[in-house]
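User: Fold this; C-alpha cells only.

Assistant: Input:
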Amino acid sequence: MSIQNPTLKSLLYIALPMVISQASETVMMFVDRLFLSWLGKAYISAAMSGGLSAFAFMSLFIGTVGYVNALSAQFFGADKKRECVTTVIQGFRVSFLFYPLALLLIPFVGKFFALSGHTPQQIDLEYTYFRVLMWGGLLTLFRTVLAGFFLGIGKTRTVMYANLAGMVINIPINYVLIFGKFGFPALGITGAALGTLAGSLLICLILFISFFRHKIYRAYRGTSIWKFDKTITSKLLRYGIPSGVEMFLNVFAFNLFVQMMHSYSEDVAAAVTIAFNYDMVAFIPMLGLGFATTSLVGQQMGANNPEGAVKVSHLALKVGMVYAFCMMMVFFFGASRLVSVFAGGLAESDIDIIPMAITMVRLAAIYTLADVIQLVLAGTLRGAGDTKWVMYISVVLHWFMAMGAYFMIKVLVLNPVTVWMGFISFVIVLGAAMFVRYQFGPWKKMRIIK
C-alpha cells in the first residue's frame, strides 16, 4: 500500500474495516434499544436521550483525544514512527486529565432533562442510563486514543476485530442483564448500560494488548517514551481542542433538538427514536469512512503530497455516495418493514406511533447523500489540520438548527414531521458548506509537521 500513490484499493483497505467497526457499534446500539423497546416506549426513548446526553457531555474530551488519528497519520506519513507512539502516550495523559472533569458534569444533567419538559418516568430512566455510561467514560477515551493510533498507521483491521468482539459480548450480556436471565436480576435500563460498558471494556483490552505488541511500540519502548512531551501534547491540544469543541457543541445542539422533539409526547419520542435508530444505521458506518479519510489525508499531507490528499477525498466521495444511494433506496422503499421491527414491543394503544415513524424514516432518505459529503470533506479538512474552520462551519449551522427547532416547536407549535423536515434541510446545507470550504479553502497549503 503506497502512501505516495493512493488508490481505491488502499482506501478500501483502511476504510472497509472502519465501516465494519462502526457498523458493529450500530448493531450494539440498535439491539440495545430493541431489547428496551420490549419493556415499553419510555425505555427506548430514554436509552436514546440518556445515551446521547452521555456522548454529548463526553464529546469535548473524545473529540480532542480523537485527534491522535490525524496526528499519528501525519507522523507516519513523514516516517516519524517514534512520534506515533509518543502521541498515543500523550493521549493517555490527556485522557486521565479529562476524566474527572467529565464526572463533575453528572449532577447537572438531571436538571437538564427536567428543563427539557420530560415526564418524571422519562427523567428517571434516562438519567440512570446516562450516569452509568459517564462512569465508564475513561474506557471511551482510551478506546478513542488507541483506535486513533491504529487508524493513523493504517492498521484498521485491529480496530475492526476489537469492535466485533465487543459487539459479540455486548448483545448477550445486555439480554441477560436487562431481562434477568440465568439467575441474574432484571436490571432493565441499568443492565443495558452495564452491558455497553462490558463491551467497551473488552474492546479496550484488545486494543491495549495489540498496541503493546505492535512492532512500532516495541521498537521504541522504554521509560523515555512515557515521559511528558510538551511539543506533541501542544500539537494534540492545538489541533484537537477545535475538533473537541466542535463535537461538543454539535452534539449538544443535536441533543437539544432530540430533547425538544421528545417534549412533544412519549409517542413522538418513541417515533423519533425509531427513526434515528435507522438513521444511525446509515450514518455511523459513514463515520468510519470519514475517519479513514482523515487518516489517509493525514498520511498524504505528512508526506507533503497534497495532490494525493485530493485523490483520497475524491475516492472516498465515490465510495460514500454508492453506499448512501443504497441506504436511500432501503429507507424509501422499506420504511414500513423497518419500523415493523419495533412494533412488536408496543402496546395496542401505541399503534399511532407507527405511521409517524414510517414517514420520518422515509424522509431520512433525502439527506443521506448530503451526510456522506459533509463527513468525507470534513474528514479531509481535519486530516490536513483545518480544524478551526470545520468547527466554525459546523457549530454555527448546528446551533442555527437547534434554535430553529426551538422556534418551530415552542413558538409556532408546528407538527413533528414539519420539524423533522427542517432537520433534513440543515444536513443538506451543512454538506454544501463543507463543499465550499473544501473547494476554496487553504487546506492544501497547511502543514502540521515541518
